[in-house]
Amino acid sequence: MIMVLDSVRGVDRRRVLRWGGVAAAGVAAGGVQVVNARPGRAAPADPDAIPPAARPGGAYDRYVAKLAAEGKFSGVVLLSYRGRTVLSRSYGMADKEKGVRNDPGVAFYLSSAGKPFGAVAILQLAQQGKVKLWDTVGTYLTGFAKDVAEKVTIHHLLSGTSGLNNPDVDVQRVFQSREEVRAYNERWARQAELVSAPGTPTDHAGAEVAIPAQIVEVVTGRPYWDYVEEHIFKRCSMTGTAFVTRPQWLTDKHIAHPYMELADGSLVDAVRNLDKGSPSPHQPGKNPGRNFIDAPGDGGFATAPDLVRFAQALSDGTVLDPHYAELFTGPKHPHPPQGGGLRGGRAAPADASFGAYTLPVHITNGQWVWGRAGGDPGAGASWNIYPDTGWVGVILSNCDGVPLWEIIDQEIQTITR
């Protein structure tokens, strides 16, 4: 059963999902198109509805500029209101060796911020009747422990309530092909063990995204990366977004390189220094460049305008039928105080926070915020949708030392207060 709490039932989610005319035509500063023009779908953005802090030269703009001036931010930030870009700023270098600067057309590594694409893929198959959310792992996949195969459902996996543990990952391994990445992750997911009853919230269990991705592959007969690129990225007109390989990362000037901090405080290009690893206690020894391509269900690379296009596609039925889009973002279980996802341990806690399908959703200052963030050595990403008002916020960075969670807090407070 999918739980929707009484405390949030008062929100008309059909209204929320068509939030404020995000499908309106819009062009970003500098000529970067943010969304495709759809005349007649919404009224133009009301300038009076734009908080002064969100405007160019406002408090949020000045805050990010100060971080960049202090060497604490390299990347792109974007604020979009009802399909029109209000603020777009780029700082730092995408590739220092080649002298390529960051700009809105540069794709950044998403890390965990790309996990919701897997949930959308599953929901596309569900609305076609090809999978059922109450089906167990064993309905589609073999080789799992008996209790995992028979007790853990797709709903448990997408909602982060599988009760599975997180098998150890070989962070030192340098992968050399797509096939090697797929084979390794198929074996790795099958090492997951049931440590709590299904329905119990888990803490970032990687198998919860790996297993649905494998179900997508079995049901469609296609590699996860190819299915998502065709049925999500292409459908949403996300032309700068893809699952790229390490050779592409090294040669394509439109992809930002991750600058990873070493123990001595120096920064190195992680993709060009595969022998180096992060000293971070949260990710000891890790280097994202060692993946030939991201594990199915995770990561990917996206531009900031493309993430706005994805938000639009969720609102207008492009990528999911309205009821399934509602199912994607609907709260499934409550987080503890200050707990869960984007709001975990932050200085500005949400009024209420919940787990949805692969993303946290929360109410802050009386407004819904849907979003996902992720980080790896040298990379950070966040996208937030504000369905009550029609805002979308994107933060993409390619350098260690960026206070990502503080910037997210600043963005949320700028939009919701």
Automatic annotation (TrEMBL):
Tell me where in this chain the Beta-lactamase-related domain is found.
61-401
Query: Pfam families from the xrefs?
Result: Beta-lactamase
Where are the stretches annotated Disordered?
272-294
Q: Which InterPro entries match?
A: Beta-lactam-related, Beta-lactam/transpept-like, Diverse_Enzym_Activities, TAT_signal
The UniProt entry, under PANTHER family, shows: BETA-LACTAMASE-RELATED
| Name of the protein | Putative penicillin-binding protein PbpX
- Species name for this entry? Streptomyces aurantiacus JA 4570
